[in-house]
Amino acid sequence: MLDAAVKVFSRRGFHAASMDEIAEDAGISKPMVYAYLGTKEELFVACLHREGTRMMQAIAGAAAPDLPADDRLWRGLRAFFGFVGAHRDGWAVLYRQARGEQPFARELATMRSRLVEVVAGMLDHALRAEGREIAAVDLEVVAYALVGATESLADWLADHPDADPEKTATRMMNVAWLGAAQLLHGVTWRPPAD
Amino acid sequence: MLDAAVKVFSRRGFHAASMDEIAEDAGISKPMVYAYLGTKEELFVACLHREGTRMMQAIAGAAAPDLPADDRLWRGLRAFFGFVGAHRDGWAVLYRQARGEQPFARELATMRSRLVEVVAGMLDHALRAEGREIAAVDLEVVAYALVGATESLADWLADHPDADPEKTATRMMNVAWLGAAQLLHGVTWRPPAD
DNA sequence: GAGCATACCTACTCGTGCGTAGGGTTACGC
DNA sequence: GCGTAACCCTACGCACGAGTAGGTATGCTC
């Protein structure tokens, strides 16, 4: 039942999707949708919630906290891209639609910031292991960038149905980890004097 | 006049924004908006177009093609984040709203892919200078990731009004260039045997 | 000052889609 | 066979907002 909603929302976008179409696609009538899942917003939030939870679980399940940082990153990425590859509709709802729609931006932002936190925590952990430390803001920003890059590749993956999630994850590692590893070893880039 | 539209669109989103509000905000009445700028879609496209062109020009003006790759990247990023910092509304319209709205996704995707192309071209150029070459797909994907990371930081910047665009650009360089430089030197990451 | 055009506004029509009221149908108890 | 209760549908009310029709004021020509 939620499946139908996710499908329609992903095809049409939140606003353009009509409850009539969702009901029809689910094989029932509109009042039933209202009876079971409430208003359109509640329905969308329910979709968001389910897809988000599934995704988080997929990632958390793959990236155990006791692994070394690079391995954790790799497993997490692989799980993430695997999820997106398998649930392209879900990803479209979660990321493309919710963004910009005021009522859901908050919901999405929460999930995203949890991700950012996890990544930042990972970096911080790895840094401390190397005996280094950098400001919390910097960590957050780097984590933000990594999450953004990953989302961007997820989009790319969603638009290329033949692409291999595993390979995409490898590419992401090449971008992310090589840079992050440099940072961990104390190599930084500074703006030229000008 | 477009300014009012950009402001309202950025606050409300495309659908939630009413022509009445835009007209009121611009200090004129609705029929005038229609007389000067046509339908709501045309109006939005006009906003998109103006902000997009401004942004592209800001970047292109800063990153001359004859500079070395790292310098070009740095100047381009600095110009980009400077632009976002100065036109937060514009960025919100351009990126947050247009995404997901079917009719404008194309417009946005075009702009984005032009950016990706430029970045990929830059990487390719730098690679050839090093006597290396990698598959075009890989280049595209790496460029995609970099663009995604940059957009993500732009969002961060838009949500943190006190943040310094210059500093944000520096952070982006640290994530992007350190990783890219590794790639350019032939260092790559490979998945563990498992 | 009469005729005319330009610039603008108020007040409407009309389509669309969310949410619901009220009616039909099947299954079960008596 | 008849009451009734659970379930689901068709068909509507209603609000909101895009786009427009027709009227009013200001300035310009002769």
Describe the structure concisely for a colleague:
Two copies of one chain form a homodimer. The first copy, chain A, has helices at 2-12, 19-26, 30-37, 40-62, 69-86, 88-97, 102-129, 136-159, 165-184.
Present the secondary structure layout.
The structure is a homodimer of 194-residue chains.
Chain A lengths: L1 H11 L6 H8 L3 H8 L2 H23 L6 H18 L1 H10 L4 H28 L6 H24 L5 H20 L10
Helix pairs in contact in A: 1-2, 1-4, 1-6, 4-5, 4-6, 4-7, 5-6, 5-8, 5-9, 6-8, 7-8, 8-9
The structure holds a DNA duplex (30 and 30 nucleotides).
- Find the CATH topology of chain A: Tetracycline Repressor, domain 2
- Distance N terminus to C terminus of chain A? 60 Å
In the residues of chain A, how many domains can be counted? 1
Q: Mean pLDDT across all residues of chain A, rounded?
A: 85
Largest interface: A-B, 49 and 49 residues
Q: Any low-confidence stretches of chain A, pLDDT <50, length ≥5?
A: none
Class of secondary structure makeup of chain A: mainly alpha
- Please report the total strand number of chain A as a whole number: 0
The percent of residues in helical segments of chain A reads over 70%
Percent in strands of chain A? under 5%
Overall shape of chain A: it is elongated
- Rounded to the nearest angstrom, the radius of gyration of chain A is 19 Å
Query: How would you describe the oligomerization state of the chains in this entry?
Result: homodimer
| The CATH homologous superfamily of chain A | Tetracycline Repressor, domain 2
Treating each run of at least 4 consecutive H or I residues as one helix, how many helices of chain A? Answer: 9
User: Quick one: biggest sheet of chain A?
Assistant: none
The CATH class of chain A = Mainly Alpha
Order of helices and strands of chain A: HHHHHHHHH
CATH architecture of chain A: Orthogonal Bundle
